[in-house]
Amino acid sequence: MSDNLDNNITPASIISGDFDPYDHADNWHCELVEPSGSVMNEPALLDPFADPQTDWKERESQMINLMHDHHGLGLAAPQIGSSHRMFVMAHSQLGDIGVYNPDIVSYSDTDAMWQEGCLSFPLLFLSIKRPEEITAQFTRSDGHTKIELTMSGRDARIFQHEYDHLQGSMFLDKVSLLKINRAKAQRSKLIKKFKKAHKQQT
After folding, report:
1. Which residues are catalytic?
2. Residue 65: which residues within 8 A CB-CB, separation 6 or more?
3. Residues 6+ apart with CB under 8 A from 159
4. Across the 202 residues of the chain, what is the mean pLDDT of every consecutive 10-residue run?
């Protein structure tokens, strides 16, 4: 993924243009897309199970592999250019799971501030306040198995982050431009550090 964040990026500056989710119904290429694309800035509206011929177990496996290849903890369909309502995540007890047509049915009254990253914005880390505990309902890849989970800590954090992607929202939307620019400065330092370490190894 290219390093194309300018110094003044804000969620409002991303131009999504005209958007038809059905343009992305068969657009399955398991590779990360640019975050400025329309598919990442509009709600994901497509039911994964509308086409019974789609092998979601295979697609889920592809997404999990991509997630791990990029050292991530979650990956939503819009991040690879698809408008289907699904994501994958690394659950602390269940392992790697696919989440289809999710709904968060309750949030705790207690919030927690954690630092988050996103595969769509490599090495950009932002402190985000979210409810500490949630209860969510979703379907598994077979299209029939219904799951209800109460999650807290890291699991709740990942679920909410990926769920936001399905709503057309990103973690940049939750912080000020000042905080984004501070995070970008830290990001630049990390990149220089990695380049220096790589140069010393070669």
Report:
1. 162
2. 30
3. 74, 89, 99, 102, 104, 134, 136, 151
4. 38 43 63 92 95 94 97 97 97 97 98 96 95 98 96 98 97 95 91 80 74
Kindly state the tokens that stand for 84: 């289907």
User: What per-residue confidence (pLDDT) applies to 23?
Assistant: 54
DSSP string, 19-68: --GGGGSS----S---TTSGGGSS---B-TTSSTT--HHHHHHHHHHHHH
* Torsion over CA: 136, 138, 140, 145 (sign): positive
Tokens 């369909």 found at: 77
Task: Report pTM.
Answer: 0.84
Q: Fill in the DSSP letter of residue 118.
A: E
> What distance in Å separates the CA atoms of residue 126 and residue 115, rounded to the nearest whole number?
5
Range list of H helices, the chain: 56-69, 153-166, 177-201
Domains annotated for the chain, with CATH where assigned, are 15-201 (3.90.45.10)
**How many other C-beta atoms lie within 10 A of the C-beta of residue 103?**
11
Measuring CA to CA, which residue among 170, 38, 191 is closest to residue 117? Answer: 170
Q: How far is 13 from 26, CA to CA, in rounded Å?
A: 28
44-73: burial string, b at 16+ Cβ within 10 Å, e else = bbbebbeeeebebeebbbbbbebbeeeebb
